[in-house]
Amino acid sequence: MPTILVVEDEQHLRATLAYNLRKAGYAVETAATGSAALAAFHAGAPDLLLLDVMLPEIDGFEICRRIRQTSSVPILMLTTPATGRSLRAVITTLPAADEQPALVVLQDLTELRRAEWARRAFLANISHDLRTPLASLQAMIETLQDGAIDDRPDALDFLARMDAEVHSLNRLVAEFLELSRIETGELELHLAPTNLRALLLEVVARMAAQSRQRGVILEPRLPERLPTLAIDGERIAQVLLNLLQNALAFTPAGGTITLSAVVEEDQVVVTVRDTGVGIAAEDLAHIFERFYKGDRARSGGGTGLGLAIAKHLVERHGGQIAAASEHGQGTTITIALPRSAPARARTC
Q1: Distance CA 23, CA 40 (A)
Q2: Nearest-5° angle of CA 166, CA 172, CA 174?
Q3: Beta strands 27-31; 3-7: pairing state
Q4: pLDDT per residue over 194-211, tens digit each?
Q5: Rounded to two decimals, what is the model's pTM?
């Protein structure tokens, strides 16, 4: 019976490998450290060595070098990098007259595991975001049925709240469908020569009433001339409106939101800067992920999809979007748009 020496410092993985190999009909020896591996190898002369790279005392590469000085035994080196890759080894015994050879197949399951995790996270998030407004609607309907409908002021208040919840549900569904279209490549950009300065001023004008109502100064700081870009003006306006709405939601009265633009050699950088509450450091790296909601986003009642959509739309234009912030010091979002049209988009 062929003998396999399994060298792995992680106890559960070592036990799992040993169990499956014994089940496949092999004799198995194990070691948890580099020195123990060398001792077991010289004591037992195994037919195959399954060797982890990162080991205590002596690493796998040094073990391999030492063994190769005196032996040509097959060595299969295994490792799971710090990036969190997921590997599976499938060992199949092959029929033979005088030996028991085996076919070893290594499968990288990392992307499959990540996709499964993303699917579960998505279902959990969408279920939560649907369940909350639906529960509110159900509670208000039951209250009306229990007699509040006969009290006109209360009934009107409940109807207004129900209308807000329905609006929230419609927004969530619409943004989810749009994000799905973007991520699956179904959404096409309709590029056309666009006066960027006029577009930015139009976006500011659309947000002017809201900013006055909240007592926040919305200030465009634009050069007299900006280049004409081949962009989907409607989609870029959508991105900018989302950024300005976020800034407005988290900037207190008396604060300032600035929309500026700078022309560089091969791109135009548009910046939305606010003097609001800022974003916590632990949230900043995740704000463009779909459904991610730090304390800042939760307090505003958003869907958690707006910035994910913005990121996709900017990248579809061949651009980049980034955020910088300190908690309590405001937030700066920058969008870099190339001065040449992206190859992937369709020009109208």
Answers
A1: 21
A2: 100
A3: parallel
A4: 999 999 999 999 999 989
A5: 0.56
